[in-house]
Automatic annotation (TrEMBL):
Substrate binds at residues 147, 179, 214-217. It comes from Paralysiella testudinis. This is tRNA (guanine-N(7)-)-methyltransferase. SUPFAM superfamilies: S-adenosyl-L-methionine-dependent methyltransferases. It comes from the Bacteria. S-adenosyl-L-methionine binds at residues 68, 93, 120, 143. Transmembrane segments: none annotated. One of its GO terms (molecular function) is tRNA (guanine(46)-N7)-methyltransferase activity. InterPro entries: SAM-dependent_MTases_sf, tRNA_(Gua-N-7)_MeTrfase_Trmb, tRNA_methyltr_TrmB_bact. Keywords: Methyltransferase, S-adenosyl-L-methionine, Transferase, tRNA processing. NCBIfam families: tRNA (guanosine(46)-N7)-methyltransferase TrmB. The gene is trmB.
C-alpha cells in the first residue's frame, strides 16, 4: 500500500494511471528488508518490461504458474510456495517494504519457486503476460476501498477481470478472498458475469487448504470481520458464432 519511492528497484516504472488500486505512501523499510532487495533482487526480482515474459524460462522449468497480485508482506505467499513446490509463483506488489520482506523470506526459507515484481499488476497483466500462460491467479484481501466514491479503485471489476481471463489456461482458476462483505458480493457478481468462468461452489467457497491466514485477514478478524473466499475455474468457452448464409 505504501513505499518510499527511492530505495527499491523499478520505482520509476510504476505508471501514473489516473485511477489506481493503490496509494504510494511513505513507509519504513527496515535495514534487513533493504539488504534483501540489494542482494537478492538480481536472483529473484523481475523488472517491468514492455514485452511478454516467458515464465518457464524465468523459473527455469516447465511447471504450473500462479500469479499473485498484492502479496502485502508476503508471509502467506512464502507459505503457499512451500506447500505447493510443484508450482511457480509470480508475486506482484507495489509496496517496497513488502517486497524486501518477501525476498528475505525467500532467502531464509530457501524458497526457489517465487519471483517478485514491484509494479502495478494491472500494467504487468496488460503488457507482460502471454495469453494462456497461467494456471492460477491469487488475489487475497485486495484493498477494499470502503467509501463509495472510492469503489472505482477496487481491483476486482469487470474490466480488469476481462483483462485477466485470457491469461488463464482453460482449467486454470482464479481465487479471491476478502474480509469485506460488500466487496465479496461485488466479487461474486463480477466473476459470475463471465460465461468462461465456472464457480467451484454455490457461492462462496471453503478456504482451500493451501491458503494460510494472511496478515490482512488476521487484522480483519481482530476487527470482527468475516472472510469470504471465491474460487472460479476457467472453462473451455466458444462464443456462439452466427454465420452469414
Ligand atoms: C490489503 S493489502 C493485502 C495484502 C495481503 N494479500 C494480505 O492479505 O495480507 C493489498 C495489497 O495489494 C497491493 N496492491 C494494490 N493494488 C495493486 C496493484 N495494482 N498492483 C500491485 N499490488 C497492488 C497493495 O500494495 C497491498 O500490499
Amino acid at each position: 500500500m505504501t513505499d518510499t519511492p527511492s530505495n527499491t528497484p523499478d520505482n520509476d516504472a510504476i505508471p501514473k494511471r489516473s485511477i489506481r488500486s493503490f496509494v504510494l505512501r511513505q513507509s519504513h523499510m527496515t535495514p534487513a528488508q533493504q539488504k534483501a532487495i540489494d542482494t537478492l533482487w538480481p536472483q529473484f526480482g523481475l523488472d517491468f518490461q514492455a514485452a511478454t515474459v516467458d515464465l518457464n524460462t524465468l523459473f527455469g522449468r516447465t511447471a504450473p504458474k500462479i500469479l499473485e497480485i498484492g502479496f502485502g508482506m508476503g508471509t502467506a505467499t512464502a507459505e503457499i510456495a512451500q506447500r505447493l513446490p510443484e508450482s511457480d509463483f509470480l508475486a506482484i506488489d507495489v509496496h517496497g517494504p513488502g517486497v524486501g520482506n518477501l525476498l528475505k523470506l525467500i532467502d531464509e526459507q530457501s524458497i526457489g519457486n517465487i519471483r517478485v515484481m514491484r509494479h502495478d499488476a494491472v500494467a504487468v497483466v496488460e503488457t507482460m503476460l502471454a495469453d494462456a500462460s497461467l494456471d492460477g491467479i491469487h488475489i487475497f484481501f485486495p484493498d477494499p476501498w470502503h467509501k463509495k466514491r472510492h469503489h472505482k479503485r477496487r481491483l476486482i471489476q469487470a474490466a480488469f477481470v476481462a483483462m485477466l481471463l485470457p491469461k488463464l489456461k482453460p482449467g486454470g482458476y482464479i481465487h479471491l478472498a476478502t474480509d469485506w462483505e460488500e466487496y465479496a458480493v461485488q466479487m461474486l457478481d463480477v466473476l459470475s458475469g463471465f460465461a468462461e468462468l465456472r464457480n467451484s461452489a454455490a457461492d462462496y467457497a471453503p478456504t482451500p487448504a493451501y491458503r494460510p491466514e494472511t496478515k490482512f485477514e488476521a487484522r480483519g478478524k481482530r476487527l470482527g470481520h468475516g472472510v469470504w473466499d471465491l474460487v472460479f475455474e476457467r472453462i473451455q468457452y466458444e462464443p456462439i458464432k452466427f454465420s452469414n448464409f
